[in-house]
Amino acid sequence: MKALFISNDPSIFDATSAARARMRTYAAHMEELHIISCANAQAKELQEEHLFLHPVHTSKLFRIRALTRSARAIITKYGIEVVSAQDPFEHGLAALQAVHGTKTRLHVQVHTDFLSPWFLRSSNWYNVRATFLNRYRRRIADRVLPQAAGIRAVSQRIKISLDSHYGSRIAYVSVIPIATPTDVPSPVKLPAHTFNFSLMAISRLEPEKRIEDILLALKLVVPRYKMVGLFVVGGGHERARLESLARSLDLEKQVVFLGERADAWGLLQSAQTFIQASAYEGYGRTFIEAALARVPIITTDVGIIGEVFRDHEEALVSPVANPKALALNIMSLIEDTRMRQELSMHAEAAAHTHLAGIGDLPNLIRDDLARTLPRL
Predict the structure, then answer these.
(1) pLDDT of residue 128
(2) Pairing of strands 273-275, 228-233
(3) Domain encompassing residue 237
(4) Single pTM value for the model
């Protein structure tokens, strides 16, 4: 089978990246795997055995058109049988346009829970732009998904929402989780601090991650437990606003922004609790990482929560946009050492069971793509 991925991950052009390693594994199970992605001017076309990488150099304004043209050229040149878009939005539209008028089949991956009501909700002025963009993306998905010959969701939550929303208008939705390494790294010491109970959030700092809810929760906890603190790992457009909010809440001594860290998983092992407050998630790989690191989890009800990790069994779960509920869960873990131990123990077991049940991921992905092809 000759497949083309339309990717949104330019790190595939880095020979040492985890994304490149995954693509090598997938390519080994196919006749040819071609990947296009927008990348910087230094990225070059290259081939590694069955893997072909094709950078696209363009601005965001012309991204869809450039990806479409590149994909169509590769389809024609190499005889591509199936094109898989990494999302049903801009990349899905480019894939749909590229296969139009050809015998090449369209496959779409869904990594985002875009049918969650929170995907379109704007509760704060700074999130208005993102909400308008998400409304546009929802309309694109409504156009792309019914024309796909195959759809891959990364969690049961997404599959259920797709089946409920689209019904018989879409192809069968397979559930294939995101690849997650199981080799837990050595612990990494946290920067010097005065906390005796450290929370850690690992996230892109974007509106949908709702880091502000964690700060508001911390504000409720600190008067009672003055030595609790929060480390925020990750970068994004929200960092300056969140730092300003921490100052306005008088939490400068309790919150440390660490920026993007390659050793985030190692740092997490030095914290007492992993916390996140996302409005929506497709999967949530950091849940698996926290569980494997034996760090108790406080989270909102998103991604694989409910599917892999259950409330008060493997994690403490709060409603979205509810800082008071987050605060109560934080205080519960501060006060109850046994609960922390049991949650982390049960979460680790659940993570191993989940990962063991996935099976051979490269073969699953190959077979899922092959399912879109006409049967002889």
Answers:
(1) 64
(2) unpaired
(3) 197-356
(4) 0.93
